[in-house]
Specification:
Order of helices and strands: EEEEEEEE
Strand order of the largest sheet: 1-4-7
Number of helices: 0
Helix content: under 10%
Strand content: 25-35%
GO molecular function, one term: pectinesterase activity
Radius of gyration: 12 Å
Distance between the termini: 22 Å
Structural class: mainly beta
Protein name: pectinesterase
Keywords: Aspartyl esterase, Hydrolase
GO biological process, one term: pectin catabolic process
Organism: Gossypium davidsonii (Davidson's cotton)
Shape: globular
Oligomer: single chain
Length: 92
């Protein structure tokens, strides 16, 4: 499993997160996840990021623990890998 982020927030009250702005995701790997739920309440947002087709269609992984309170977001991202219609239901 190839994953770009694994944010470790343990509570929604924690004031931490990852924000990737004006980035570019490219490479030779396939089915790369934008993030996975390392701890119980991660928060990661990609904005204005160009995503090549290497990004997995689901985009995000709950790390096989769908009960986690994840906050994953994408805002105005572009490219073949930026496809909100194929993302997991927990993605915002």
């Amino acid at each position: 499993m190839a994953v770009i982020t694994a944010q470790a927030r343990e509570s929604s009250w924690e004031d931490t997160s990852y924000s990737i702005v004006h980035g570019r995701i490219t490479g030779t790997a396939m089915d790369v996840f934008l993030g996975r739920a390392w701890k119980s309440s991660p928060r990661v947002v990609y904005s204005y990021t160009e995503m090549d087709e290497i990004v997995h269609p689901c985009g995000w992984s709950s790390n096989r623990q769908p009960e986690r309170a994840v906050y994953y977001g994408e805002y105005k991202c572009t490219g073949k890998g930026a496809n909100p219609a194929t993302r997991e239901k927990f993605m915002r």
